[in-house]
Amino acid sequence: MKKILVLFFLSMFLYNPSGHAMITGKGEVKLTERALQNFLWYLRGDWPERKKGRYVPAYFILSSNGNWSYFLWCPYNECWSNERPHVAMCERETGVPCGAFAVRRRISWDNGINTSKKRAKFTSKMSDEEVKSELNRLGFYGEIENQSNSINLSEQLQSLKKLYEDGILTKEEYKKAKKKILN
Asked: CA-to-CA distance for 78 and 69, rounded, in angstroms?
């Protein structure tokens, strides 16, 4: 009888009601300004037209070219949802592969820097600059190698200085990043 009870409780903990693994994105991707703004709203549970409330991020879907994004919140802590229809909708509308960029507040997209063993995590209290800086560090935001630099050099230096002044970057990290920007 004890074995049956143990098996029952163990199966309850291991049961996945969604019945599938998350479709995570893979490869290099850069968020557009619009996708970045959607990601910021997603992280904070805040949408301009929606009443203020506590919404928990469920997942953030992104196209592999970074142009198309969609997200879902849950109005409570436990949320069982299926991202597959939204990934399929993204692929139909864009014609490129799509996947989950983030699950809750953790980046799930594997680009070689952000791997399954080392997932970046964000909080709702991070400033826009902190989020941009972290996404840039992870290779998800910023300059695309084949395109001209769309971000003004002075803006990059100002945001870097702010991160240093706020104590997010050490003096060594600040000098290294500044040198990289100037080169």
From this structure: 23
Average pLDDT over residues 71-85: 74
The gap from C-alpha 79 to its chain's centroid, in whole angstroms, comes to 18
C-alpha span between 11 and 167 (Å, rounded): 46
* Confidence at residue 130, expressed as pLDDT on a 0 to 100 scale: 93
Amino acid at 41: W
Provide, rounded to the nearest whole percent, the portion of the chain with pLDDT above 90: 24
| Backbone torsion region of residue 136, taken as left when φ is above 0, otherwise alpha when ψ lies between -120 and 50, otherwise beta | alpha
Closest alpha carbon to 160 in 128, 125, 121, 133 = 133
Tokens standing for 107? 């980046």
Confidence (pTM): 0.64
Q: Which of 127, 111, 139, 113 is nearest to 168 (CA)?
A: 127
What is residue 53's predicted lDDT score, i.e. its pLDDT? 58
DSSP states of 66-81: S--EEEEEESSS----
Distance separating alpha carbons of residues 93 and 76, to the nearest angstrom: 30
Note the pLDDT of residue 26.
87
Domain residues of the chain, as ranges? Answer: 20-122
CA pair distance 83, 67, nearest whole angstrom: 18
- The length of the chain is 183
Task: Quote the CA–CA distance of 120 and 126 in Å, as a whole number.
Answer: 13
- The predicted model gives 84-97 an average pLDDT of 89
